[in-house]
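Quick start: read one record
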Amino acid sequence: MVKTQGRRGEVAAELHTDFPERFPERERLYALATDGTRRELHLEDSWPHLGRYVFKFRGVDSINAAEDLVGCELQIPAAERATLESGAAYVSDLVGCTVCDMANNGTEIGTVADVQFGAGEAPLLVVRSEKKEFLIPFAAEFLQSLDLPGRRIEMRLPEGLLDVDAPLTEEEKRRQRGEEEE
Protein backbone atom coordinates (compact mmCIF):
# COMPACT_ATOMS: atom_id res chain seq x y z
CA MET A 1 0.00 0.00 0.00
CA VAL A 2 1.44 3.31 -1.03
CA LYS A 3 -0.30 6.01 1.01
CA THR A 4 -3.15 6.93 3.27
CA GLN A 5 -6.28 8.12 1.47
CA GLY A 6 -8.92 10.18 3.20
CA ARG A 7 -9.50 10.75 6.91
CA ARG A 8 -11.24 7.55 7.98
CA GLY A 9 -8.37 5.08 7.70
CA GLU A 10 -8.47 4.34 3.99
CA VAL A 11 -5.29 3.35 2.16
CA ALA A 12 -4.43 3.53 -1.54
CA ALA A 13 -2.58 0.67 -3.20
CA GLU A 14 -1.08 -0.13 -6.57
CA LEU A 15 -2.68 -3.26 -7.95
CA HIS A 16 -0.76 -6.22 -9.29
CA THR A 17 -3.83 -8.33 -9.88
CA ASP A 18 -5.86 -9.07 -12.95
CA PHE A 19 -8.95 -9.63 -10.78
CA PRO A 20 -9.90 -6.37 -9.00
CA GLU A 21 -13.56 -7.21 -9.54
CA ARG A 22 -13.18 -9.95 -6.89
CA PHE A 23 -12.48 -7.52 -4.03
CA PRO A 24 -16.17 -7.06 -3.09
CA GLU A 25 -16.48 -10.81 -2.40
CA ARG A 26 -13.35 -10.92 -0.21
CA GLU A 27 -13.71 -10.75 3.54
CA ARG A 28 -10.09 -11.02 4.59
CA LEU A 29 -6.77 -9.99 3.21
CA TYR A 30 -3.29 -9.91 4.69
CA ALA A 31 -0.82 -7.06 4.98
CA LEU A 32 2.80 -8.20 4.69
CA ALA A 33 5.15 -5.64 6.27
CA THR A 34 8.72 -5.07 5.11
CA ASP A 35 9.99 -6.76 8.30
CA GLY A 36 8.17 -9.97 7.29
CA THR A 37 5.31 -9.73 9.78
CA ARG A 38 1.83 -10.44 8.45
CA ARG A 39 -1.42 -8.93 9.70
CA GLU A 40 -4.93 -10.18 8.94
CA LEU A 41 -7.31 -7.46 7.74
CA HIS A 42 -11.06 -7.55 7.22
CA LEU A 43 -12.21 -5.65 4.15
CA GLU A 44 -15.13 -3.27 4.56
CA ASP A 45 -15.01 -1.59 1.16
CA SER A 46 -12.82 -0.97 -1.88
CA TRP A 47 -13.00 1.16 -5.01
CA PRO A 48 -10.80 2.34 -7.90
CA HIS A 49 -9.39 5.86 -7.64
CA LEU A 50 -6.94 7.65 -9.97
CA GLY A 51 -5.16 4.53 -11.23
CA ARG A 52 -4.98 2.89 -7.81
CA TYR A 53 -7.38 1.06 -5.54
CA VAL A 54 -8.57 2.42 -2.20
CA PHE A 55 -9.24 -0.01 0.65
CA LYS A 56 -11.16 0.47 3.91
CA PHE A 57 -10.51 -2.16 6.59
CA ARG A 58 -12.48 -2.86 9.74
CA GLY A 59 -10.76 -1.35 12.80
CA VAL A 60 -8.56 0.98 10.73
CA ASP A 61 -10.47 4.19 11.35
CA SER A 62 -7.93 7.02 11.38
CA ILE A 63 -5.04 8.38 9.34
CA ASN A 64 -2.66 7.25 12.09
CA ALA A 65 -3.97 3.67 11.94
CA ALA A 66 -3.77 3.71 8.14
CA GLU A 67 -0.14 4.89 8.25
CA ASP A 68 0.78 1.54 9.83
CA LEU A 69 -0.28 -0.14 6.56
CA VAL A 70 1.71 2.11 4.21
CA GLY A 71 4.57 0.08 2.70
CA CYS A 72 2.82 -3.24 3.29
CA GLU A 73 2.08 -5.66 0.48
CA LEU A 74 -1.57 -6.66 0.35
CA GLN A 75 -2.00 -10.42 -0.05
CA ILE A 76 -4.84 -12.82 -0.72
CA PRO A 77 -4.86 -16.25 0.97
CA ALA A 78 -3.51 -18.85 -1.47
CA ALA A 79 -6.64 -21.00 -1.18
CA GLU A 80 -8.77 -18.07 -2.36
CA ARG A 81 -6.74 -17.09 -5.41
CA ALA A 82 -8.29 -17.21 -8.87
CA THR A 83 -7.22 -19.97 -11.23
CA LEU A 84 -4.84 -18.58 -13.83
CA GLU A 85 -4.52 -19.35 -17.52
CA SER A 86 -1.66 -21.51 -18.74
CA GLY A 87 1.72 -19.74 -18.62
CA ALA A 88 0.58 -17.24 -15.98
CA ALA A 89 1.71 -17.34 -12.36
CA TYR A 90 1.39 -15.50 -9.10
CA VAL A 91 4.48 -13.58 -7.98
CA SER A 92 4.62 -15.60 -4.77
CA ASP A 93 4.83 -18.79 -6.85
CA LEU A 94 7.72 -17.45 -8.95
CA VAL A 95 9.92 -16.31 -6.06
CA GLY A 96 12.34 -19.10 -5.19
CA CYS A 97 12.18 -20.79 -8.60
CA THR A 98 15.41 -21.64 -10.40
CA VAL A 99 15.74 -20.02 -13.85
CA CYS A 100 17.51 -21.95 -16.61
CA ASP A 101 18.47 -20.77 -20.10
CA MET A 102 17.56 -23.53 -22.56
CA ALA A 103 19.21 -21.56 -25.40
CA ASN A 104 22.47 -22.14 -23.53
CA ASN A 105 22.17 -25.91 -22.85
CA GLY A 106 19.94 -25.44 -19.81
CA THR A 107 22.49 -23.36 -17.92
CA GLU A 108 21.22 -22.43 -14.47
CA ILE A 109 21.16 -18.63 -14.17
CA GLY A 110 20.01 -18.26 -10.57
CA THR A 111 16.97 -18.03 -8.34
CA VAL A 112 14.05 -15.61 -8.60
CA ALA A 113 14.33 -13.21 -5.64
CA ASP A 114 11.60 -10.76 -6.67
CA VAL A 115 9.42 -9.59 -9.55
CA GLN A 116 9.37 -5.94 -10.66
CA PHE A 117 6.48 -4.30 -12.48
CA GLY A 118 6.24 -1.13 -14.52
CA ALA A 119 9.46 -1.36 -16.53
CA GLY A 120 7.69 -2.44 -19.71
CA GLU A 121 4.99 -4.77 -20.92
CA ALA A 122 6.48 -7.82 -19.23
CA PRO A 123 7.33 -7.95 -15.53
CA LEU A 124 11.02 -8.41 -14.75
CA LEU A 125 12.26 -11.42 -12.84
CA VAL A 126 14.99 -10.38 -10.40
CA VAL A 127 17.25 -13.42 -10.63
CA ARG A 128 20.20 -13.77 -8.26
CA SER A 129 23.18 -16.04 -8.71
CA GLU A 130 26.10 -16.38 -6.32
CA LYS A 131 27.94 -13.54 -8.06
CA LYS A 132 25.37 -11.37 -9.80
CA GLU A 133 21.80 -10.15 -10.17
CA PHE A 134 19.97 -10.25 -13.51
CA LEU A 135 16.74 -8.60 -14.65
CA ILE A 136 15.01 -10.97 -17.06
CA PRO A 137 11.70 -10.14 -18.79
CA PHE A 138 9.04 -12.71 -17.89
CA ALA A 139 7.73 -12.62 -21.45
CA ALA A 140 5.81 -15.37 -23.23
CA GLU A 141 8.27 -15.32 -26.15
CA PHE A 142 11.13 -16.27 -23.78
CA LEU A 143 9.24 -18.74 -21.58
CA GLN A 144 9.73 -22.35 -22.62
CA SER A 145 8.25 -24.12 -19.60
CA LEU A 146 7.02 -23.24 -16.16
CA ASP A 147 7.16 -26.00 -13.53
CA LEU A 148 5.90 -24.37 -10.34
CA PRO A 149 5.69 -27.60 -8.28
CA GLY A 150 9.29 -28.36 -9.35
CA ARG A 151 10.31 -24.70 -8.70
CA ARG A 152 11.86 -24.40 -12.19
CA ILE A 153 11.46 -21.84 -14.98
CA GLU A 154 12.95 -22.75 -18.35
CA MET A 155 13.49 -19.85 -20.71
CA ARG A 156 15.04 -19.43 -24.14
CA LEU A 157 16.82 -16.10 -23.80
CA PRO A 158 18.12 -14.04 -26.71
CA GLU A 159 21.88 -14.05 -27.12
CA GLY A 160 23.50 -11.29 -25.09
CA LEU A 161 20.54 -10.59 -22.78
CA LEU A 162 22.46 -11.62 -19.68
CA ASP A 163 25.46 -9.51 -20.77
CA VAL A 164 23.52 -6.24 -20.99
CA ASP A 165 24.86 -4.94 -17.68
CA ALA A 166 27.94 -7.15 -17.45
CA PRO A 167 31.17 -5.49 -16.32
CA LEU A 168 33.65 -4.53 -19.03
CA THR A 169 36.54 -6.84 -19.82
CA GLU A 170 40.07 -5.45 -19.51
CA GLU A 171 40.26 -5.25 -23.31
CA GLU A 172 37.00 -3.22 -23.46
CA LYS A 173 38.31 -0.87 -20.76
CA ARG A 174 41.53 -0.28 -22.75
CA ARG A 175 39.51 0.48 -25.90
CA GLN A 176 37.35 2.97 -23.99
CA ARG A 177 40.46 4.75 -22.72
CA GLY A 178 41.75 4.89 -26.31
CA GLU A 179 44.75 2.73 -25.60
CA GLU A 180 46.14 0.82 -28.55
CA GLU A 181 46.54 -2.92 -28.54
CA GLU A 182 50.12 -4.11 -28.04
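Residues 3-78 form a domain with the Elongation Factor Tu (Ef-tu); domain 3 fold (CATH 2.40.30.60).
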